[in-house]
Structures are given as C-alpha cells and as structure tokens.
User: What shape does this take?
Amino acid sequence: MTLPEAFPSPESIPPAPHPMTRARRRRAQRMLYPADAEGQAAVLADLARRAYPSYDLFIYAILSGAILAAGYLLDSQAVLIFGVLAAPLLTPWVGLSLAAVTGSLRFFLQALAALLVSAIIVFLIGLAAGFAELPFGPRTHNEIYPHSILSWPNLAVLALGALLLVVTFVRTEDKPYLPSVVLAYAFYLPVSAAGFGLGANLEGVWPQAAQVALVHLTWATLFGILALASLRFRPRSFGGSIFSLLLTLALLAGLLTWTGWGRAALDWTRGTAPPPAPTSYFPLTPTLSGSPPPRPNPSPSATLPRPSATASPSPTVKGASETPAETVTPSITIEPTPIFARINSPEGGGAKVRKSPGGEYLLTLSNGFIVEILGETEEHMDTIWVKIAVKRNGERLEGWIIQSLLVTATPIVNWEATATLTP
Assistant: This one.
C-alpha cells in the first residue's frame, strides 16, 4: 500500500531541530517543573522568552500614566479605573520573580530595570500634571489620598492577584490580563499619585504614596516567589541558591522596615507599647476633647492669712483710723477648650474657605478635613458664616466658611469656646 501523493514519505520528513518539541514543552509545563536538566532548561527558556520585557511595556506605561494623571487632575474614579485597564501587561514582573527563584542575576536585573523605567515614566507624567494644576488654585482631591496609605484589604487582594498571575502564566500560554490589572492597580496608581502629589504640593501624598508602591511591589514579589517555589522551581546552581536566599531576606527586611512591622514586633518583645498608628490620611487630625483642662492650684501667696491668737488684747489708740485688713481673692482661670469640626459638603466633594463672609476665595478643603472653630459667626445674604482656622503647609490660615458645611463631634451652643471662669 502506497501513501497518497499529498502526504510526504517518511524519508522526506526532516529531523526535528531540537529534541524538545512544542508538545513536549507543553507537557513539561503541565508537569510544573521537570526533574531532568534538559526539561528544566526548556521550560525556563520558554518562560523567560514570554516574560522578557518589550517595547509594549513602555508604550502602554505612557498611555496609562497619562490617563491616571488625568484621573487625579479631574478627581474622577472612573478615569482612574480606565487608566489601570490601559496599563501594560506585567509579565516582566513574573520574569522578575522567576529570576529570583532560579537565581538568575542577569535576568533579574533586566526585568527590574524595565519595571523601574515604566514606573519612572508614570511618575514623571503625574509630576507634570501636578505642576499643571498649580496655576488653577487649590482643588479637591478625594481620589488621591486612598492610594497614599497602606491597608490590609489592598494587601490581601494584591497577594491573591500575584498568586493567580504566576500560576496562570506558568500553567497556560494565555496572557493573564485580569491578574495583571490587580498588580497594575497596586503599583501604578500609587506611583502616579506620588508624582502628582509632589508636583501639586499636596500634604500626605509625597513621599507616602511612593513608599506604598514600593511596599506593594515587595509584597507581590514575595508571594510570587512562594508561588513559584510551590510549583517546584528551584535554583540551578549553588551561586543561584545564595542569590535567591539573600534576595528573599532583603525583601523581607525591606518590607519590615518600610511598613514599621519590624519595630512594632521589637517593641512587643521588649514589652513596650508601640506608638499609636495614624487613623486618617488627612494632614490635620487634632484630638477632639470634651473636657476642660485641669484647674491649676492656687499659689501659696494667694492664701488668706489666719489671725494669730494673743493672750492680751493690744491697746487701741483713740482717734486713730482703723484700716480693715486687705482680703486676697484667689482667681482660677480656665483655658478655653478649642472646638473642632469636620468638612461635610453634600455637593462638590469639599468646601471653599473665603477671606470674609462671601468675600475673596482662599482655598478649598476636601470632605473629612478637620478645622478649628474660632467662635465668630456672621450672617451674609441669609447664610450663616463661621470663622475657622486651618493649618496648611505648616502655616496657620484663618478664613470664613458656611456653617451648614461643618459637622461637629458634639452639639455646641452658639459655636462659642468655653468662657473664662473667675469666681
């Protein structure tokens, strides 16, 4: 029986250029990490080729950085989400984790340099947007502050996204877009916020947001290393084992230092209470107090003199005027208790502070900002205005704001401070 002319004869089929065919590579990937050196080399070469950074990383970093900067400039959450969706595919981060596990110093430096260049691009675009906002005066920025603080929900979602990205990238040849968006949200949003906060001179944003991005990258890399180690990826040489161990220890040390967890653990072992963590990302968080300060004790010189008892009455000269003894009255002065209120505007996301009731514009305060009530009120065009004080950029500013936009912790009668008591 002869083969049809459409099929080539077995003698005419050229030999395979490499014994590790594509089907065998897929089968090796399904086996996670082969035990033989040939299979390991083939799997690592295929993963490194797919994770190697290309020009797409930098092109999409420019696009994503521009959209994120516009989102912070417009204070729009929808624009920020669109910027995250336009972020580049973070397969170079998988290559970074893979190089850390296998001990490949050269590939690790290449992947790290590519990620840093993309972060610098996003940072510089945010910095330019922050500078561009300065001529237009203060604006509300409710969307930038949440990306300048660390939170456990963000860290938990980031860890899950890192695990899914590594497993999806290693087990399949599909591009893991959804887990990459999770990492882009945790990495590029704080980087853009740091640049925008530095350019716009926003308190509590720079350098806190840059530190948040660094912690997120370190946190995700640690979980990426754990995921690859669970998939049986190991260093291929003794030097690679030393590099992988030192890098993991450096990541742990950096994470404990940047987050303050190491100092908290050290204070706990010593038996000392750690300092209280800040409960808000607003630049001004005064302590609300409803009780006046303790009354000072009267000085000894203010004590009334006691008459001394004598055995015989002293003679009284007739005609001399009798002067009564001077009575000293102790005076107790209580310092006025400051009154604080919180900005709570139902529209616009903030409130404007003016130099006088309905007068010249000074600045805008975002919702949730804490101000000090000075006690003066004035009615202007059927609207009650209250005089407040606020600290911005280390300087105390006074102005007027509409009373209905303020919320106090406790009801205050006539918005007046505690009067001075003199019994």
Remarks:
- Residues 3 and 9 are 7 Å apart (CA to CA).
- The two ends are 124 Å apart (CA to CA).
- The longest strand covers residues 370-380.
- The domain at 52-270 is CATH 1.20.1080 (Glycerol uptake facilitator protein).
